[in-house]
Specification:
CATH class of the largest domain: Mainly Beta
Shape: elongated
Mean pLDDT: 77
Largest sheet: 6 strands, antiparallel
Strand order of the largest sheet: 5-10-6-7-8-9
CATH superfamily of the largest domain: Ferrous iron transport protein A (FeoA)
Distance between the termini: 51 Å
Number of helices: 3
Helix content: 10-25%
Low-confidence stretches: 64-71
Order of helices and strands: EEEEHEEHEEEHE
CATH topology of the largest domain: SH3 type barrels
Strand content: 25-35%
């Protein structure tokens, strides 16, 4: 059985204790979990494709926030406009071909960049050049906020 934590009250319970709500008219076919402590309903991440996606998204978002606060590292997508950052590397999900293309445009580890805009796309200045990056790509470029020596 899988353990769950209620996002509302923080109560931890196992799948057996989270049986579907007895008052629900869809009791037999419902894929929602009901917290036995507060009654909060949430999609069962094992039964719902949307639940699995949301669960993964929240874990990645939390990991990114913790990384930024604790280590000073974050992604280009999280930098504020006008903020300088030093590229530290690329996320493992970024393909080698995409990494080579970014290197060709001057964006690589050790380079100092400045974020100019975040919406509708992330625009960074690298030396005298400006580069526009889609949001999902900017989220895969790991940086450290502040200034550093350029390589």
């Amino acid at each position: 059985m899988m353990n769950h934590t209620c996002p509302l009250c923080g109560h931890q319970y196992n799948e057996g204790a989270a049986s579907h709500c007895a008052a629900c008219p869809l009791n037999g076919g419902c894929t929602m979990l009901c917290c036995p402590n507060c009654g909060y309903q949430q999609p069962d991440p094992q039964e719902s494709r949307l639940g699995r996606w949301a669960s993964g998204w929240l874990k990645r978002r939390k990991a990114r926030q913790v990384g930024c606060e604790e280590v000073g590292a974050c992604t280009l997508a999280e930098c504020r406009p006008g903020e300088p950052a030093c590229v530290r590397g690329f996320h493992p999900d970024l393909s080698q071909a995409r990494q080579r293309a970014l290197h060709a445009h001057g964006l690589g580890p050790g380079r100092l960049v400045q974020v100019l805009h975040q919406r509708p796309v992330t625009i960074v200045q690298i030396g005298a050049a400006e580069l526009a990056l889609e949001g999902d790509l900017a989220a895969l470029i790991e940086v450290e906020r502040g200034t550093a020596d350029e390589s």
